[in-house]
């Protein structure tokens, strides 16, 4: 059996904490009860933190608002790193003109739209504008007709040799205690296999997510990877990605990895967190204020 | 460059011909012009033949009717082996009671329904009957709401440890000269990866398709695999499957494999047909009647 | 928790029993103590049986001898179906002349040699005879120099578009209580990925193994798939393959699948055996003779 | 047909050039004739450059020496970024004590040895020290007995839940005009599949290689990704990785990608370089000095 560590004493050892969002700060029912104490403690101790999330469905401002509505007032948009931000960066650097076709909601597209490119839903691509499509982005599993628009996506990609960006690498996400939804990452894998091309993926465990946060930290002053700890509930994304980037890692048992299964999963995958905690919640009695 | 063989002279060397359907007998425009002469010749020469097809969207009777409507009167349902027939056999042998949930059209389900099991579309499964679902079948890419019913399928399979049958292994199929549609086999791969289970697949290149036809032949009298030639347009299904089953094989260039690319594809895949022909059409002048 | 069934009472319900070898009849220490009683019972009850094994390292005669040496005198070579036999059948039907290059021991090659083809170890292929190589077979993980001969195999396959047969699909096999060896099936996967070609695999769960045994049974008289039960220790090969072929299946807990993990594995894979037994051993008191 | 660009005029547009090594600067015969002019031009124009290579077989000092021996005196070790350096960084950050077991030559291990950890070849691991093994590294395809040490590696990883680092992601590398050798990346994939664990890979197309070079550049002064161009001969590693990191990219036709196949490969993969050049060689007449 693995030893369970105390989350507060781990936080005390680092200058910066990276958090995954789903399964760590919130779940299908809303915020984890007591998680506000963790952020109060970080604030009081003047620790820096980032939320590093495979979520391209909304802008950082909208993501931050979703925490503030629920009472986590300290989480502002500059504390959020999403795979959608990396997608926007890619388009800024690599796609200079023409149309960016997308699968997702208008909200998700509004965000990447700000690059000055012309973003259009896949449903709006036709014989008259297909030659101007210079990139295609998988943003969200909602906001389009799966049957019509996935078939159209396959045919666009058979005709155009263009970069395809998958802005969320997850295959599924929980929607209730027992049910999940297919995520845009799972859909993108199907399309990639059918068209036989290589897509570009942004999202943990890929290092580019961590690099983005690390760059923001370096802009604020000298920092070492040894000063940062990554907290997540999923071995294959949060912990593998954090480890690979050279960070210490905390597996919390409040999400994807069940307490009675954590040891088995670690042995089976060989993905070993530095610490294991019940959750990222700091108890009231521990705070001292 | 590969040598192009004459189809009629190949037919002359065998007692039985197995044909793939799409790309060999018909394409997105209908029957291949002149293919009726091939069947007239088989009839006149008293050669046996079977159409061996990865198609579970309709019953053999309906598939046969689709040829007869177009003028190929000799193709009767007893000449058709479909992956749907193997699915029906599986359910007859292995699933004794309860509900078989399916993704597909009512037409595709009507056929497997004859086993006496209760077949229900995935959309009709709910908390009240999920415990009676004893198998789930991927039949056709049409006839259901992709967004709702694929998400429901994932959640049914997370709750029930039941056999899942994929009755068509193709990933995509052509609908016009330039466009394809995603096939149910491609969709099933996505769901299989998300739920992490092992599905049962019927369809070429799997040997069970060929075994089914071979068994029917043996019921008619002594036969050797050396007496049979398999004709197809796709290296990875028709030719690989035929080769593996021990049959001689003909690659025709009227479908998936383009004449200018056939040699490259054979070298790249290492899947080598016994013969290569332009098509399975026998020319008028060759018939002699 | 899954119900544990009594093996003898299962045998009583069928006319024919198919057995996997490793983990069912024997393990790394030798024969399972008491397994001779099971074969005595089959003999006494005049039940037919076949051993269906992913083993191409020796001929059926040699495999049978290995049981007889240990005291299982009733197991004769005509009761053994190996993936090596399917390989031999393939070569008989599909490769007419030239050299068959192989990776394995001379024993494994001696067996396929009987087809009249010239079999040569990969190490004996050079610029002077490479053009005559018309097939390449992965037979056994022993009998060759991995570094030299695997690199040579890759380069032969880059130059020759020929069928490649993998005569054992297993990735690893147990050699002691705690240790495994890499099997030729795992090595073949590596080579296949590097050369980018499609290999032909014989071995469970592929149906052709079961078809071979079923054909032998039909030669002896009328039989239905409902009369046969497949006994194995591995969900992904024995049980999946038996199920797919339409047979009832018994998972025994004397090999790959641990008693405390069987339920989890069945739920996780969705591969459901008809029965679960501790082992295929019939107890002394049950025999009645 | 794709337009062929002039390499010198591309270099003129950027401040920094990243080069792949094999297929760009050298091939199986040695340095590309004339490549010294390219480095003379970079020197004269005061352009910065890095060689970004999936090579963990030697230290940067040894890699640099291999260029200098052949006359490329300007290439010093501080211009070389190898996947081996990322491996060393990982061990420095994440593995604090114990043994690092490795597959490779003593030369490759000597380099990672400098971290202060105890490095031992896999062949030296036994029951007495296996519990101290805290990481395992795939460094090079030479320097060990494939049969004995790969089997031993599998069994070490079945017993120890430890990070496994693959320091070269290539599957094969050219050794003569027509022949390749299996690379350690291909071997690592086989072992990963057999043990069912998740390995950590360093090497293009992974972003961490490019990040490492980019960080070195930023230490020298302000730089933007727009100022850098990546030059490589392989779409799936150099071009995909460069594109994903946000760099402009040059595909050269002097290595893995043949001139008559480049257009097909780009369309088939959807990996689109910014430019295509015959090679990275600048012609004598272009230099002007």
TrEMBL record, chains A, B, C, D:
UniProt name for this protein: HAD-IIA family hydrolase
Pfam family, one: Hydrolase_6
Alphabetized InterPro entries for the sequence: HAD-like_sf (IPR036412), HAD-SF_hydro_IIA (IPR006357), HAD_sf (IPR023214)
MF GO annotations: hydrolase activity
UniProt source species: Mucilaginibacter sabulilitoris
Sorted UniProt keywords: Hydrolase
């Amino acid at each position: 059996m693995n030893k369970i560590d105390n989350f507060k004493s781990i936080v005390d050892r680092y200058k910066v904490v990276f958090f995954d969002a789903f399964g760590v700060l919130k779940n299908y029912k809303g915020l984890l009860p007591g998680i506000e104490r963790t952020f109060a403690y970080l604030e009081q101790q003047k620790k820096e933190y980032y939320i590093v999330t495979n979520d391209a469905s909304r802008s950082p401002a909208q993501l931050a608002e979703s925490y503030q509505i629920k009472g986590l007032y300290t989480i502002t948009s500059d504390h959020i790193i999403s795979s959608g931000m990396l997608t926007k960066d890619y388009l800024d650097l690599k796609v200079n003109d023409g149309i960016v076709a997308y699968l997702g909601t208008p909200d998700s597209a509004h965000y990447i739209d700000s690059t000055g490119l012309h973003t259009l839903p896949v449903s709006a691509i036709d014989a008259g504008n297909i030659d101007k499509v210079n990139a295609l982005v998988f943003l969200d599993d909602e906001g389009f007709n799966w049957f019509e628009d996935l078939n159209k996506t396959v045919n666009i990609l058979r005709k155009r040799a263009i970069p395809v960006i998958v802005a969320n690498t997850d295959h599924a996400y929980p929607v209730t205690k027992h049910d999940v939804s297919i995520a845009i990452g799972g859909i993108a894998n199907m399309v990639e296999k059918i068209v036989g091309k290589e897509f570009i993926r942004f999202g943990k465990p890929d290092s580019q997510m961590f690099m983005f946060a690390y760059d923001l930290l370096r802009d604020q002053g000298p920092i070492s990877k040894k000063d940062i700890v990554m907290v997540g509930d999923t071995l294959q994304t949060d912990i593998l990605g954090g480890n690979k980037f050279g960070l210490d890692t905390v597996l919390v048992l409040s999400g994807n990895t069940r307490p009675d299964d954590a040891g088995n999963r670690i042995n089976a995958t060989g993905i070993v967190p530095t610490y294991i905690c019940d959750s990222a919640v700091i108890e009231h009695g521990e705070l001292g204020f």
